TrEMBL record:
Residues 47-373 form the T6SS Tle3 phospholipase effector alpha/beta domain. InterPro entries: AB_hydrolase_fold, Tle3_ab_dom, Tle3_C. It comes from Paraburkholderia saeva. This is DUF3274 domain-containing protein. SUPFAM superfamilies: alpha/beta-Hydrolases (SSF53474). Residues 629-648 have a biased composition (Basic and acidic residues). Residues 620-664 are annotated as: Disordered. Residues 532-610 form the Antibacterial effector protein Tle3 C-terminal domain. Residues 649-658 have a biased composition (Low complexity).
Length: 664
């Protein structure tokens, strides 16, 4: 299994370094009266655990740098320390530097996980417009290949033409910023999930007590959920799903886009059962917590020339052991503080954003947009006792309360000012004037038509592209409160921008996206009449494409709001940083081992699939994945009806029935 997931030679941690801290001389104090010299040493704090980031499709972790900075800031606040700081980012390689110029590791608990799709020979012809760099790879793979359930991981990719070519989805696509083209089979998702599981198992094998947290976004949440089914050791302590496309309901588009129709569509029950299997497995992080680590390793550090050093290790059973993880918070030891010391082990968090224009698409409508349905997660749902949910919505506050219902819409009664020339409340002989009305408003008091801002475009000018919750839809918010709740302003829901990014202060991110779009754009069909008046179809000329790109670049496009949970100031540092598990993290202690873990997490460094382009056999379904499909469910229901019909007593004949009635 290892050879299919990593090309690296296994590295065992040096426990003499991992469990020992090298302190350095700071200053000396001389007490001449007592003839004593006191040397003050700086003893580094223990890393509070490990945090693994997992990105989604069409991505190389663009949110990683800001999220890492915010997690470090938030953990400093939570633990009463000041030393944690994010790694330096190289925008050219889209990777983080491993160490400072003096070879000292950046004091960050984050391991960035990278995955993607490697083009096979012939892919550029099979999948026109498929994005790739010079290395024939693309981080996260094609955006249109995302899924809303795990069963799709073992199925074919996105298809542009449906119903035997009758329906062309690209022709119906109202968005100019993305072309919908065929995409490859999704087995690379399974491979990425196995790599993530292998990374977690590796840390667990070497450090059974290591606090491990997985922070996933978008399709990365699906990779993470699938990885939980492959984890062999104790699962991560905490998993946080942000903007997840996972859906508990089947949709017509699931059937239309499936190669085998209903035979490929996972049932609603199967989706719920799969999610339950994963959440149940995560409880093992709490119930199967092992004995405390043994701290009997000999020191593996050597002294530093010219510097007085002292090497120390901390027994977790010592009364003051927690002081090496954090300090005082509100004049209390961090582990005794109501919020800082919160135990999050075995918990699964779901964070959603009602303004997410990626997950809010009707064909997806995932839990990252509308949350977990109330029939599944509510105040009395023991099935998901370890699942916690937060809503991140414009003009609302996050983390100020818990255990309440969030309504997407509210009925509001407004009184109206009424005037009558007669001075009364009636006119003529008619009914009294209406002086109040009931209106449907969004959760933040806007007219219901402004749920989507800008408004949803329409497919074929008829069907809204974006879904809208029902008038009475609500979801249960049960995530714990935080000490400093975050107020999300109206700017949390971003508005429109120029497609080409001109004038934006975003370090060139949108301009880069437009450049990719222009590079891989596929000319569309143009129909015109020839000299004989006959309709002729041809492809756009290069000149026409250039003109289209110039026109598109100046157009306004709606921002997706897809990364706001992890990128909006305060969300991570003041909310998510309190939702992860913290404790004694020793994997960071050995620099060589820590860098080995980072290499394992980067598919461009260690993944044989990236190096050879040959995807290993993904195998069958893992335990915990309910593979029930709509076709199987329909066939089972038919068998039940047939069995019932055979057992049911025969209905009386008309003659017998009429005779019975006459006898009455």
């Amino acid at each position: 299994m290892m050879s299919n997931l990593s090309t690296l030679m296994p590295v065992s941690p040096d426990m003499g370094k991992a469990y020992w801290k090298q302190s350095r001389f700071e200053r000396s104090e001389i007490d001449e009266e007592k003839r004593l010299i006191t040397h003050h040493m700086i003893v580094p704090s223990i890393m509070p655990g490990t945090i693994i980031f997992v990105h989604g499709v069409n991505s190389e972790g663009e949110w990683y740098a800001k999220a890492e900075e915010q997690f470090c800031k938030g953990l400093n606040l939570r633990l009463g320390r000041s030393d944690l700081a994010r790694s330096e980012y190289n925008p050219t390689t889209r990777r983080f530097y491993r160490a400072r110029e003096n070879n000292e590791l950046f004091a960050s608990p984050v391991i960035p996980f990278y995955w993607g799709y490697k083009l096979q020979p012939g892919d550029e012809q099979r999948y026109p417009g498929i994005y790739h760099r010079d290395d024939k790879a693309w981080g996260g793979g094609p955006f249109q290949n995302g899924t809303n359930n795990l069963l799709q991981f073992w199925q074919d990719g996105f298809r542009r033409h449906l119903l035997g070519g009758v329906v062309d989805l690209q022709a119906l696509n109202p968005e100019i910023s993305r072309q919908l083209q065929d995409a490859p089979p999704r087995g690379y998702y399974v491979h990425a999930a196995k790599r993530l599981a292998n990374l977690i198992d590796t840390i667990r094998s070497d450090f059974p007590n290591e606090p491990i947290n997985v922070i996933a976004h978008s399709q990365g949440t699906m990779i993470t959920l699938c990885a939980m089914l492959y984890v062999q050791k104790r699962p991560p302590d905490t998993v946080i799903l942000n903007s997840s496309p996972y859906s508990f309901d089947t949709k017509v588009t699931d059937y239309l886009s499936a190669a085998n129709g209903d035979a490929d569509v996972q049932t609603a029950d199967a989706r719920r059962n799969t999610f339950w299997s994963i959440s149940k497995k995560l409880t093992e992080a709490r119930t199967q917590y092992p004995e405390k680590d043994k701290y009997d390793h000999e020191c593996g550090w050597e002294g530093v020339n010219g510097i007085t050093t002292l090497h120390v290790h901390v027994d977790p059973g010592h009364p003051q052991a927690n002081s090496h993880v954090g300090g005082l918070v509100d004049d209390q030891p961090w582990h005794e503080h109501e919020h800082s010391g919160r135990d999050n082990r075995g918990k699964l968090f779901v964070n959603f954003n009602p303004a997410d224009r990626v997950i809010g698409v009707s064909a997806v409508a995932g839990i990252g947009w509308q949350g977990i349905p109330s029939k599944i997660l509510n105040e009395t749902s023991p099935m998901f006792a370890n699942v916690y949910q937060r809503v991140f919505a414009r003009n609302t506050t996050v983390g100020d309360r818990s255990n309440y219902w969030f309504n997407f819409f509210n009925l509001t009664t407004l009184r109206q000012q009424v005037e009558s020339r007669a001075g009364g409340v009636t006119t003529g002989y008619g009914a009294p004037l209406q002086t109040q009305g009931t209106y449907l408003q969004t959760f933040d008091g806007k007219p219901s038509r402004d749920f989507w801002m800008p408004a949803s475009p329409s497919v074929a000018g008829v069907v809204p592209e974006l879904a809208t919750p029902t008038d009475s839809q609500r979801v249960w918010i049960n995530a714990p409160v935080v000490p400093d709740p975050v107020r999300l302003g109206s700017d949390f829901q971003e508005m429109s921008i120029r497609f080409d990014g001109v004038g934006l202060q975003d370090n060139g991110a949108q301009a880069h996206d437009f450049s990719d779009f222009r590079q891989f754009y596929q000319p569309v069909d143009v129909t015109e009449k020839d000299v004989c008046g006959q309709a002729v179809t041809r492809k756009e000329t290069p000149e026409e494409v250039a003109a289209r790109m110039a026109k598109y670049g100046q157009q306004q496009i709606a921002q997706t709001n897809h990364g706001q949970i992890l990128e909006y100031d305060g969300n991570v540092s003041h909310v998510l940083a309190y939702d992860i598990t913290v404790g004694f993290g020793h994997a960071f202690g050995d620099p060589a081992y820590w860098n080995y873990l980072k290499d394992m997490a980067d598919w461009k460094i260690s993944d044989p699939y990236y190096k050879t382009g040959q995807l290993p056999d993904i195998g069958g379904y893992p335990n915990g994945l309910d593979t029930g499909t709509n076709k199987e469910q329909r066939e089972q229901q038919a068998r039940w009806r047939e069995m019932w019909d055979k057992k049911a007593p025969a209905a009386p004949s008309d003659d017998a029935a009429s005779g019975f009635l006459r006898s009455r």
